[in-house]
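Hey everyone, long-time lurker, first post.

I ran two proteins through the pipeline my lab uses and got sequence/structure pairs for each. Pasting them in order. The first:
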Amino acid sequence: EYYQQSLVLARDVGSRLSEGTTLGLLAILNYDEGDLELAAERFREAIVICDEVWERGAGFFRGNLSLIHARKGEFSEARSMVLKGEAQVGLGERSERGSYLGLKAELEYRVGDMAAAAETLAQAEAIAAELDLGPNSELNTSLKKVRSVFSGSMD
């Protein structure tokens, strides 16, 4: 509900950055709730906006959208999207890089490339260990989610 209000306000004041960010956050919420179609639609909208105003954000949203493509069996599109997103995210902050690698590891797992999934997750975990941000950091929380997908406790 608050994200919806934020989206209305962002559009009212003409803040493209806030609009794109809010759409992307709403998409993540929709994804977590299992509404993949609405999530995909919102990720696409967020990507169009963020390509103009926040390239790294567009990269993260592309990465998230790639997971939807993978879950639908659209593996070529998923891999293409995650690679473009990775280029947009770039090296960035180490914690952001680690989070993106976690997302990429989940994609590789869903595509069925277990070796690439394990290697990519190991890279993300190495960054998390190096940064030592604590168990409740955004990076470690996202890696816990990826591990739960790997263990089959989450679809």
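...and the second, right after it:
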Amino acid sequence: GGKMKPLTQMAKEIHADNRVKGFYDQVTYVLDSLKCAAMKGGNQSMYVAHSFVWNSFIVQQMALIITEMSEAIEKLRKDGIDVDLEPHSLDNELTYDENNKIFEMKYKDTVQDELADTLIRLLDLVGFLGIDIDGWVEAKLRYNKSRPHKHGKRF
């Protein structure tokens, strides 16, 4: 419902929420500690360790994105998809807990829910990295318009 926010703005909000919920506490602590140690002693191994942790964390986040997509595939294989299912909307007559119970009974773990999880995880990573995803998507779509049928591939 309503006008969609730009993806980059959504990414920043999702990432900020996930930081508040503690999903970044450990990696932030480790990266900050390694950066501090590297700056104090100028020790090359601390720079290498920082880079390794940074890259490993990004790979972990990408793997979690793939996991959500895998969950969507498995749900589709098991139960199919009801393409007419509309997103859950809050009923202001009900409590927060009652609304959540309805979501859990009817909407949670549907293909649409898993696709939403995939996008949320992807946008969280985009927010973590500080990427202007709107600009990148626009640039990629513009480039793709210049490409041949099926981008020159069989499928």
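Reply from user beta_strand_b:
Welcome! Quick read of the second one: The chain has a mean pLDDT of 94. The chain has six helices and no strands.
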